[in-house]
What we know:
The chain is mainly α. Helices cover 79% and strands 0% of the residues.
Amino acid sequence: MDTITLGHLTGWQFAALAFAALLVGFSKTAVSGANTVSLAIFAAVLPARASTGILLPVLIAGDVLAVLTYRRHAHWPTLWRLFPAVGVGVVVGTLFLVRADDAVVRTSIGVILLFMAGVTVWRRRQADAAGAAAGQPDGVATRAGRAKARSYGVLGGFTTMVANAGGPVMSMYLLSAGFRKLGFLGTSAFFFLIVNVSKLPFSAGLGLIDGHSLLLDAALVVFVVPGAFLGKWAVDRINQRLFERLVIAATVVGGLQLLLA
């Protein structure tokens, strides 16, 4: 990959990356999917392919903080159902990265995110019209639920491998499965910690992570911590309906950013 060091960055570029790292911490403990903005900032400041490798350890730092905050709220049956499909998606995404250029990657993921947001809005309106209550998650209860988990899992693994953009896909799945706010955050925290750590050898093998990128990560991880605390403070003040709207809005913004980049 293109070698990136702190010495290559101007003050404004580092400030933009630091803000993006703070936003990663916020998104991991408050509004999942908002880190698509971080993805866009990293891709704007750094070479597109290199940015995915540099962003990954920053995301893992946010995942660790999210797990420490919401570890009691994870729904493990959903996680176990998702992981095999996600593994398939990660492998497919790795093969895709070998062949596809940045423009194809961005366009593909942007279309997927906007489609998922549209489907989720439609499903939530149907549930509201029927008077359905979003209580326990339904993602693994039926054959249709298991099929949905597999399809979202493959898409989530694919998008997280090629552009660290799996957050919005899994956000749409967890919302459509009926997860409440804390269950949503706890389940996604463990999901992304495990998935992102498993991506490290793939990213290193593709040359997206090296010693220079890790030194830059060490400087940026410091900014993830205040973002996580800010997110924990904010999430206690966001009601369920607003939480869902913010997640969907962040997904739409992320998809549009990728399409228009």
